[in-house]
Amino acid sequence: MVSGWNLPSSLKVGAARDLACLPLAWLQRLDAEGLTVAVLQEGQSLADTDVLPTMTPERCRRHVVQAQALARAAIDEENRALSLDPSAPADDFASAMARRWLPDRIRENLLPRLDQAGIGFSVEVCREPVDLKALARSKQIPDEEFSTWRDLLLELNGPLLKVSGDLAQAAQEILMVPYAFHRGRAVSEVSRDNYATFDSMKVRQHRGIHSWPNRLIMVHEAFVKEPADEVGNYRVLVHELGHAMDYLAEDLLPGHRATVDGLFAADLEAARRGEVRFLTPRSADNPREYLAEAVEAYMTRRVGDEQDFYKPENSREDLQQRNPPLFEYVRSLFES
Ligand SMILES: [Zn+2]
């Protein structure tokens, strides 16, 4: 559940301790859902963690067969569209331009098809012959992997590629590339580039990032330390786990969404009358932040040292005293 084969053990302990705030039943549910908690170290991006899947030979071979069919469909579709274009025969210049941009159109057509099939191969437009050795270097393929990678690339592009020695000419000026290397691992270049957009600097700015569609929580190493940089005793990860519980409860517990939304609406109404039950400004943002903050408060006790400075009022005591219905609901959630 915690991604971090490359994490120092002190950070693993910190993350594990924060996770242990949740009852075992909830941890098991979240684990079964495939939730991953990635702790990013300074200077790392998500692509440097084991969240980025390694391209195994079996996975590649399976995807090659699918990708060939998808490429044929995209090429046929764009060629057909070009030949049906009524403006093509009338104007030589327009026709020449349309032909020139055909490979780009094929690429734009093919990429979403691959993406939808979960195939992370990259697609490149190559108007000139390609030196496969140079291409391999640009993908950081190690020398000892070159012939495996070359064989797979030839198989993938099949008759669309004319090869002489290490020089390849793509018949439709379109070349599919099966994988690249990143820090010694075969990975999808497309995924790597996406994952690299989540870097430690961005995650640190947001403290924690939760993405339920990806079943992913990201947190910067500074916030699993105890006390944490900038936030002391406050546990970022517990808040993010609160979000994950909220989303999962929506699927598992029929009344969950309506209950939380109802409690939030009532508290918002009370705040308008001057009775503030929100323990933090963020909990008043929306029902999702409301519940994440409440889960955090439920699991937080003030230590009483100088590290209680961040959100000191978001504690179990305060929640119980100032918002008994919400406290009771979070308790029932923890016990469910
Ligand atoms: Zn949040």
What bound compounds does this protein have? zinc ion
What is the fold named in CATH at topology level of the largest domain? Answer: Collagenase (Catalytic Domain)
Radius of gyration: 26 Å
Query: What pattern of helices and strands is seen along the backbone?
Result: EHHEHHHHEEHHEEEEEHHEEHHHHH
Share in β-strands: 5-15%
The tally of helices reads 15
Ends apart, CA distance between termini: 21 Å
Biggest sheet character = 4 strands, mixed
Name the average pLDDT: 88
- Identify the CATH architecture of the largest domain: 3-Layer(aba) Sandwich
- The CATH class name of the largest domain reads Alpha Beta
- Count all strands and give the number: 11
Could you characterize the architecture of this molecule?
- The protein has 336 residues and is of the alpha+beta class.
- The protein folds into two domains: 182 residues, Collagenase (Catalytic Domain); 134 residues, no CATH class.
- The protein is built from 15 helices and eleven strands.
- The chain has a four-stranded mixed β-sheet.
- Strand 8 and strand 9 form a beta hairpin.
- Helix 13 crosses helix 14 and helix 13 packs across helix 15.
- The two termini are 21 Å apart.
- 38% of the residues are buried.
- The protein binds zinc ion (ZN).
- The site of zinc ion (ZN) has 4 residues, from helix 11 and helix 13.
- Zinc ion binds next to helix 11 and helix 13.
